Amino acid sequence: FDNELSDYLEEIRMHAIRHRYHSRMLEAPKDEDARQRAIEGALKELSWLNDQLAIIFKRFEPFLGFKNHK
Question: What is the spatial distance between Cα 21 and Cα 13, in angstroms, rounded to a whole number?
């Protein structure tokens, strides 16, 4: 993979880690504000990850070799 794709994979990884963090914070929130921040953070990260489903194939397409098959 090239550097651009490697950076993209790292970006996916970081969003997944942040989503996991916010989800964990929901298990034992300190107060209502912390709970709300955890909900908003988890939803933000999940939304970003979900948006990637529409574009991830295009990002990997050059490396999949589908153009070589008929």
Answer: 12
